Amino acid sequence: MTQDSEDKKGFRLPLFQGILPLDRSGLGSDILAGFTLAALAIPGTMGYTKIIGTPVITGLYTILIPMSLYAVFGSSRHLSVGADSATAAVVAAGLAGMAVRGSNEWLALCSLLALMAAVMMFSARVLRLGFLADFLSRTVLTGFMTGVGVQVALLEVSGLLGLQRTSNEPLKEIVHDLRLLGESNLYAVGVSLAVLVVIIGGKRISAKIPGGLIAVVAAIAVSWSLNLGAHLETLGAVPSGLPTLGLPHVDWSWALVEKLLPIAFACFVVILAQSAATSRAYAAKYSDRFDENVDMVGLGMANLGAGLSGTFIVNGSPTNTAMVDGGGGRSQVSQLTTCVLVLLVLLFLTGPLAHLPTAVLSAIVFLVAVKMIDVQGMRRIFVEARAEFWVALLTAATVVVVGVEQGIILAMVLSLVDHVRRGYRGTNVVIVADKRKKGWQTVPLSTPQHIAPGLMVYLFSHSLYYANAGQFADEVLRLATSKAQPPLAWLCIEAAAIGDLDFSAAAMLRDTSALLKQQGIRLVFANVSAPVRDQFDRHGISEAIGSDAFYGSVHAVVATYEKQCAAPLENTAEGGGPAHS
Questions:
Q1: Are 365 and 154 in contact (CB under 8 A)?
Q2: pLDDT: which is higher, 105 or 167
Q3: Residues 339, 348, 338: CA angle, nearest 5 degrees
Q4: Residue 576 confidence (pLDDT) above 70
Q5: Strand order in the sheet with 522-526
Q6: Is 90 helix (H, G, I), strand (E, B) or coil?
Q7: To pair with 310 at 20 to 30 A between CA atoms, which of 243, 270, 343, 569?
């Protein structure tokens, strides 16, 4: 759906975009992919509860209602929505000190954050802010995800060793673990190593082998038969049945909302960027339609369902989405199949989970975290863009040393700074005659030439505003005083790329035209768009340079100059025009 068509129809609520039209021939593959996703997501979501500090059952709740709601309201046919390590880490770091980790109050705050993220998603949809996802550059996103991976992996070392976690600060916690290394629980270490071997070994054999599920089932069986609960920590009784719907039980106040607002906003940014990037990639792969604004409704509904069903924030998962795609899933039918399977687990199979050693979940989360550490991506950035590598590394270090919430804020700031640094100073050139091709070409400003004797054409490649107005003035005046012969009579600004003009730039243009006039040089413009021409009129620039100083093309400027000036146009090519015109 295009933005124009949506404007004509007005705001409406599209449904089932991820399912319809239903491909009956691929229905079997979608259902099988749903089984594959369940095999991965069930142990994975239980592992994420260790990151965020909520009961294991809440991990299954993130699949049941939120995934179903996204399947109905979302735009992507491929995106798998559920628990996510990045947002879980943001919430865990942000709530530290606000409540006792794992308590009912802690869980209620997690659910409230999901509701706040939903409200932000709906607000962004109304304001059509889907484009904000484009302002987290791949560089800082790579650094952020790498930092989250390092942080989560370090925090899970205590679980692998059977030690009690004492802090949410990764560096402090790893030092604590090293000091107590001799007190490690050998049963927990053995279970952790066995899980790592099963999952890694299974992937070596085939990516489709559900190593996590095999490890969970095997660990439950061994723990029950050998009574491992007497030697290491297990989950204990896990409640069965469906989640209770309702608002979180918190002390509702604006003070609490204000305190949670930065955490919710950080999660909102992560959800928007990660989900949009994943959905866009798969939509391009299969030439499917995808609307970021509609997708925000789906993500908002998913988080609304999470908040009302007593669980935590959900996000689009690149890992789960890739698993569904690899299993042959091509629509949200796969996700709905997974929801049905989780419903059956919640109703009939929570009893055996009581025997599951917590070390199993630590091992699963540890592997997920290690996979998030994008060494190849960081190395590629280092090779191709050294300056951007240091930005990515700074983002990763901030996540590990300071915190996830601060890391995502830094990532946003650095992305915007990088965008401004790259965008505000364009690479401007001079258009000159190309005798060999009987047309025009461009040359650097360092070697300016006349397109015709006494006429120079300067191509400015960006909108004009306060940040680059000085660059424009410096380059124009430098061209005006260049030693190219004969002396300059006209200076033409090729303005096709100028899409906007602010107050500072307008003042600069008036001053520059006056300086050129004092030197006997006429300033003219080519390819000025109608909206920009209106701005020229409003700011008094048209009056300053004359209403006849605007031309529809560079060719028209050259033709008029040829008629009005006595200098021969020996260097002017016949016909044609620059490649960009």
A1: no
A2: 105
A3: 15
A4: no
A5: 439-444, 429-434, 455-459, 490-494, 522-526, 550-551
A6: helix
A7: 270
Burial code (b: 16+ CB inside 10 Å, e: under 16) for 408-439 equals: bbbbbebbeebeeeeeeebebbbbbbbeeeeb
Helix (H, G, I), strand (E, B) or coil at 455: strand
C-beta separation of 49 from 59 below 8 A: yes
CA dihedral 500, 503, 505, 511 (to 10 degrees): 140
Instruction: Report whether pLDDT(478) > 70.
Output: yes
Beta-bridge mates of residue 452: 455
Within 13 A of 306's CA, how many CA atoms are on the CB side? 35
What six digits make up the tokens of 142? Answer: 């790579």
List the structure tokens of 292: 């970021």
Mean pLDDT check: name the lowest of 111-115, 222-226, 349-353, 506-510.
349-353
Task: Return the structure tokens found at 400.
Answer: 């590990």
The larger pLDDT score, comparing residue 419 to residue 106, is at 106
* DSSP at 2: -
| Closest listed residue to residue 76, CA positions, set 412, 318, 308 | 318
CA distance 324 to 335: 8
Domains defined along the chain, listed by start: 17-421 (no CATH), 429-564 (3.30.750.24)
The predicted pLDDT at position 12 comes to 55
372/109 Cα distance (integer angstroms): 26
Alpha carbons 269 and 83: distance in angstroms, whole number: 16
Provide φ and ψ at 74, rounded to 5°.
-75, 170
- Strands of 487-564, DSSP E: 490-494, 522-526, 550-551
**Total Cβ atoms within 10 A of residue 484:** 15
Q: For residue 308, give Cα distances in angstroms to 103, 116, 128, 194, 299.
A: 18, 11, 25, 37, 14
In the three-class reduction of DSSP (H, G, I as helix; E, B as strand; rest coil), residue 209 is classed as: coil
